[in-house]
Amino acid sequence: MRSGVSRADLLRGYLASGESGLDSMARVAGYQRLPELREEPAPEAEPLTTDTVAVTAPRKDTEARRVPFWQPTVVEEREVDGSAPDPYDGVQPLPPPSTSTERAPESEELECWSRLEPVLRSLLSTAASSRRPDIPRLVRRLSQRRAVEQVPRQRRRTWPTSLTVLIDHDRRLVPFWEDMARVWSRLREHCGGSAIKARVLLSGPRGPATDERGRVHRQWREAASEGPVLALSDLGHFGTWSEREDWLSEARRLREEGRSLAALVPCPPTRWQVSVTRAWNAAAWERRLGVPASTPWEERRLQARRLLTLLSPALRVEPGLLRAVRRSLPAAVADVGTELDAWRHELLRGRHAAAAAFRSLGLRETFATARHSEDEPVDPCIERFRERVVEQLEHWRRHLPDEIRVEETLTLWSLTPDLVGEERRQEAAAYLPRLVQSLRASQGEEAADLVRWFGRLVARLPKETVAIEPVKEALLDASALVSQLDPQFESPVPLDPARLERLGGMRGTTRGWTVFQDEDGLGFDPSETVSDLQPSRALGSVRAATPLALVTVGEQRAQSHVLSAEERQWVPAAPEASVELLTDRSRLVLRRLEKPAWASAVGRDRYGLWAEVKVGVVRSRMRWIPPGTFWMGSPAGEAGRFRWETRHRVTLTTGHWLGETPCTQELWRELTGANPSVFQHPRRPVENVSWDDCQDFLRKLNERIEGLGAGLPTEAQWEHACRAGIGTATWVGDLVIRGENHASELDDIAWYGGNSGVDFDLEAGADSSDWEDKQYEHSKAGSRMVGLKQANPWGLKDMLGNVGEWCADWYGIHEGGDEVDPVGPDRGPGPVIRGGSWDGAARFCRMAYRNWRTSSYRWGGLGFRLSWGQLSEPEDSESCDGSGTSLSS
Known about the structure:
The chain is of the alpha+beta class.
């Protein structure tokens, strides 16, 4: 209080003079007007006009993350024929790995010995006297009257009595190592074992070397033989400039020592550096004409690539196989230099004495089409010699394990089926079923080895392999088995978990998967219900009979993730992508929520997704009901059960929007201008409306809002939404019915005969004084404002009690079989009513309870709930039975 003026004085002044007088009095008294405060209920979630929401949970980083709304839109139950015979009955597993007794083929010689011997003899031989007399020399001496002390002998060229052979084992010369070994062996036969010594150069002429016994010397000259030196080397021509200089310097030093030199060079003369080859007195190892000297370097690389293209179906490239394919081509397009260019090409990796492997599989398409690119013509060299390559592959695979031969057969079968013979096709087609049997029977390390090998196999096979009919089924079955054994396996072929059920013997303990959402993405839990999840995070559940479950991301299935049945997992997904969860029994599709055109806002709260529609000044909130499978009806032991509540499994394949509350009187009045309700209040549910009245209301609403598609839920949709994944009588558990109007479990979730009159707030109400066994005493009752009771796990309120709700379909008897998207019979006694009402007994407020009335029936305890996204076409009301008999009476 200031200056003797209290707030009560200000209030009197306000009543006397209004706002203007209040402001002047406040200034005189020293008071200051504060900004107006409006007390509003805290919203459950921030309404959005976009399709993302800012996550407000505390995070380590300071930026708010934008999380998409994931909406389960489709669920399908898959039929599995458990009586189908085992397709692999009688198929034997693969035998244990064994070493083949067949020897590896010998590679072709770079040059046959009959042609090499004269060349080497001319390079290495020395003059020596033979036993035969030299008659011409003898005659010449005698004619000159010279004394003949000794009969002259004929001179002949012979192999040297001592020789040092330098064998260049540089890694780039691996294709010629076997040729070098052959020449060394033949020289030992001609020169004698003691007269010839070999030094294997490990890194050029100046580096360390090994002798015949494998002892390492710092330089090859240590303990080397006297006499000529023969180098089996490229003399650095396929190496660097400095390597050629080393060989040139070595030649000069040896010549200064008086040593005679010779070299056999596996390099075409068109690539020789004359100073080096002249210093070593070199001879070309391969004598046939090769690529012309004028061929540019780019063309030589293309020739090497062509050679590798012809070899691309091979799993491994042995030096001998490379030689055989190269010698199949004309010398003008592939000489010994092309062979080494191909071996050193960047497309090969792991080059060692046994074999090399391709670094990538990109050349296979060129092998199949004989085109290097789409805009280039067919390469006649590739097209012409492919068949010879297949013959060489068959020759070089006889000694190798079956898996190598089968893989190459499948590759060729995919790329060029005309080149694969019937025998090899049958071998490959019989191998994969045996592999499936081995995967089914193996355990431990044996299974791990098979999984690792199969992973490498399918990663290398062309994508067309899965289209080969004789091997398609076995390949897909093996992929499914490997995915179940190793969740990290990335299958390049489409997986189907239902294959495990067909194969049998692979069933695990998993009986379902639940999909949930958090700020890190989508989570998948190996169970049908997840107790530690908030209901809003659970997006849907699917059934499974085998442990294998597959998640694919994107419409083109660009990403696939195999789920492990042992633990919960998260899968990141781009906001624009769709996500599919596939098991052997179910398929669930989730898509990013786009704000519908009819919605004024969409959002997500602890219950799940919601959307609002605005009709005039009235806003009505809808809840997204995901698709799914549930048990409709009641089990035999449920308290209050009626015999016609037949329990059966129902699958709803698509989701839909459903009103968070029953349709209110304010929405009805906004659209129709009238209010037929008995218990009138804007926030109470509209009641006393017939099914026919509802159809008229829906027509007007759909005309008012284009594309809305409002209707009534089907009976199955209503019960699925009410249950929200719960199998008991209510979503808080089963009922203990203590009296006709007494089941305390209903008190928190429903207005029914036991509590609807407590503190009733309208003057006019129905007389409830004579109702029996009430939970609370009351004398008048009626409907109550919507949303005052606890919502179900999907955020739906007043699903039980308050007012009964019309459904779209007609009443019929459930036979008990499994159903998919049921819509009820075409005709019947009347439309279905679900949910119980404010004057209903406790047993009527169960999720399985069902009733009916004629389509023209009106009553103060009967309303409806809107369903968005589908149109409900009304049936002709005059064709319905108008008896009005209740099955519960």
